[in-house]
Each structure stands twice: as C-alpha cells, then as structure tokens.
Amino acid sequence: MKDLMSIYRALLVADQASFSGAAKILGVRQSAVSRRVRKLEDELGVSLFERRSDGVRPTDAGQLFLRRARAAFKELDGAVKGAMAAGRGTDGVIRIGLLPCLASGNLGILLGGYRVSHPGVAMELFEGSSQHQIGKIMDRSLDLAFVVGGTAAPGCDVETFWKARVFVALPERHPLAGCDVVDWALVKEEHFIFGREATSSGFDQLVFERTARLGGRASSETHEISQDAVMKLVALQFGLSVVGETSLFIQYPNVTLRRLPDDGGNLDYGAAWLPGNDNPALRRFLSLARSMSTEKPTSKA
C-alpha cells in the first residue's frame, strides 16, 4: 500500500487547487507538501497534477487516481467508525443458533427486545439441533446457541434462562383427550411419532426418560418431516407426539394438545457460548437475556 499520508496530501492539494493552500491547512511548508506528492508520483509512475502559475490541476491519470483514493478513504473512515460503534455495542453482528421450538415465546420476546434496544446490530439466525449448534459454536461460526438443558458443551459457558412446558398431542378421539393434564403413567405404553422439530428440541429424549422411569415400554418412530406433517399423522391415529407450548397458538385439525405434569413435563433451555468470545454485541445480548430470565444462572459446562 502506498503511503496514506502522501495520498491524503495529494487529495488536499486537489481540493485547494494549490500546494500552498494545502500546506496552510496542514501547518507545514509548501516544499514539504510538494516533496511528498512528487514522491507519490514517482512511485505511481504518472503525474497527478499539471503545475501552473495560477495553481495546479489534476491530469487525466490524476483524476482517476484521486477519485478512487477518495472513495477508499471514505470506506476506511466508515470502517473506523464502525469498529468504534461495535466497541460500544451499538453496532456489529451477532450470530445466534435457535431450536425450532423456541422461535417464539420467551426467545421471541428476547430477540424482539434486543432489536429494539440495539437497532444497529445485525442478527444472523441459524436453526438446528443442540448438538449441531454446539459444533458451530466450537468452530466460531456462531456467537451463541440456545440449547436443551443437559446438552454436552465442552469448553463453553452455559446458562439456563427458562423452563418451557411441553404438551402431548393426541388424536381428538383418543381416550385421554378429555383430560386437562395427562400424566406420564397414562402414556408410558403408547406409540410416539417424532419429526425434525421434536428431535432437535429434545422432546424425544424427554419421552424416553420419563416413560423409562415408570417402567414403561413406549415405542416410537422418527421421520425427517415437519411438525405439521407429524400432526397429520397424529390426526390419522398413527400415534401420539410431543410439542412445545408455542404450538398452543396453532390449530391442528383433529388433534388435541394436553398439558403434561409440571414435575416432569418441562424442559430447561439455555444458551452456550465460548468464554473467549469478546463480541460486544454478544455481551449485551447476554445482559438482556439475564435480565429477562426466569431462572438463576447455572455453572459452567
């Protein structure tokens, strides 16, 4: 890269149409400005200015060079201001991993609140399973990932922010559809169907753990399909399924959602990030998440 100070002085000479005018603004001798510009011309191999008795005028090559140099200085100035803003946490980018079941609810409120309080920060969102997200944290392609409680996250800091209720999805004519709360003991021998959202959000593991504790023999099948497709299979009486509380706002024809008991029908959700990540946007996001959290921070993973 050519000497930036020499380029800056050449731009100033062009603005003032004279070496003397540029020297006066810089507070140096005219000869010092002339010498720096001449050295720049020698390095470029072209004359930037026509020297005349009434001042200077850029040559054709000079006009092209100075126009591009001015644009480059503008970009450089923007980069400096952007870095300063990012240092204050008022600008920058934060890359966040989401679980499918957390696109709304508490996380939706958090994301909305962060956008309002930090409108200059761009949010890049990624959806995937807890394990996949931890991998992206480790290769530094994500700043923070929301994961199911208990997810292995070696080397990461982890905090639990809230508990989320889960619900069993039943065919509307199922004998348990009339219950307000469906105890795990009542479904420990049932057949369950899971799709991408259930496996990514930990619903399948929840079913296995809760029914196994009761000595149940619940069976299951997993498909690479959407939750909407799973609900259609439930309506056709292929089996039961489990969904998050955000699904309460969705109408699934011929399907009834019933609450599972609070002591065993909730999942912990939190966030994981690398402790060495010094992204100011991440620090402010965590600060807001903690202020909105319903849970006390947990220890490091």
Radius of gyration equals 31 Å
Q: Shape, please?
A: rod-shaped
CATH class of the largest domain: Alpha Beta
Largest sheet geometry: 7 strands, mixed
Relevant CATH superfamily of the largest domain: Periplasmic binding protein-like II
Structural category: alpha/beta
Order of helices and strands: HHHEEHEHEHEEEHHEHEEEH
> How many separate domains?
3
The DSSP helix count reads 10
Count of beta strands:
11
- Round the mean pLDDT to the nearest integer and report it: 85
Report the helical percentage: 40-55%
Which segments are poorly predicted (pLDDT under 50) over 5 or more consecutive residues?
Answer: 296-301
**Termini gap:** 46 Å
CATH architecture of the largest domain: 3-Layer(aba) Sandwich
Amount of beta strand: 15-25%
CATH topology assignment of the largest domain: D-Maltodextrin-Binding Protein, domain 2
Give a written overview of the molecule.
The protein has three domains: 4-87, Arc Repressor Mutant, subunit A, CATH 1.10.10.10; 92-161 and 269-292, D-Maltodextrin-Binding Protein, domain 2, CATH 3.40.190.10; 164-266, D-Maltodextrin-Binding Protein, domain 2, CATH 3.40.190. A hairpin with a 2-residue loop joins strand 1 (49-52) and strand 2. 42% of the residues lie in helices and 22% in strands. It starts with a helix and ends in a 9-residue tail after the last helix. It is built from ten helices and eleven strands. Helix 1 (4-16) crosses helix 4 (60-87) and helix 2 packs across helix 3. The longest helix is centred in the N-terminal third of the chain and has 28 residues, at 60-87. Strands 3, 4, 5, 6, 9, 10 and 11 form a seven-stranded mixed β-sheet that branches.
